[in-house]
């Protein structure tokens, strides 16, 4: 499990270093997870090495949202003033995501059906 945490932290550190060093507007943890994924796909790292550590982190995932929830409390006044655009953007983005997901699922289903016919 220590090796798993070390690998996860290494990739997060590597992603942060790349993000800040190259001034890329992508969060370092996203870059690090992409590098971890590439390493897993390339076979440089075996999934078993990070499995226990990632399962432990996922089992306590809800705790990682507490700091973000507390951070939102600082902005109650701003949220109170700007609640309409926030709610509007939430609803619009939700419906756009649902529509795109439905369209993609329909296209994938159509391709699957057409390949079954041949």
Can you tell me about this structure?
The protein is mainly α and 118 residues long. It has two domains: 1-59, no CATH class; 66-118. Helices cover 82% and strands 0% of the residues. It has helices at 2-21, 28-42, 47-59, 66-73, 76-81, 83-117. Helix 1 packs across helix 2 and helix 1 packs across helix 3. The longest helix has 35 residues, at 83-117. The radius of gyration is 20 Å and the shape is extended.
Features:
mainly alpha, 2 domains
Architecture blueprint of SSEs:
Elements: H1 2-21, H2 28-42, H3 47-59, H4 66-73, H5 76-81, H6 83-117
- Rg from C-alpha positions? 20 Å
Strand residue percentage:
under 5%
What is the H-and-E element order?
HHHHHH
Helical percent range? Answer: over 70%
Beginning-to-end CA distance, first to last residue? 48 Å
Q: Can you give the mean pLDDT?
A: 91
Low-pLDDT residue spans: none
Strands, count = 0
Total of helices: 6
Based on CA inertia axes, which overall geometry fits?
extended
Q: What's the number of structural domains?
A: 2
Largest sheet: none
Class per helix and strand makeup: mainly alpha
């Amino acid at each position: 499990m220590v090796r798993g945490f070390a690998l996860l932290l290494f990739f997060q550190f590597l992603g942060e270093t790349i993000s800040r060093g190259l001034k890329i507007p992508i969060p370092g943890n996203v870059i690090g997870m992409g590098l971890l994924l590439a390493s897993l796909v390339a076979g440089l790292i075996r999934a078993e090495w990070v499995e226990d550590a990632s399962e432990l982190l996922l089992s306590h995932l809800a705790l990682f949202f507490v700091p973000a929830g507390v951070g939102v409390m600082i902005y109650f006044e701003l949220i109170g003033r700007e609640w309409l655009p926030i709610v509007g953007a939430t609803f619009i983005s939700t419906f756009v995501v649902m529509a795109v997901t439905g369209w993609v699922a329909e296209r994938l289903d159509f391709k699957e059906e057409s390949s079954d016919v041949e």
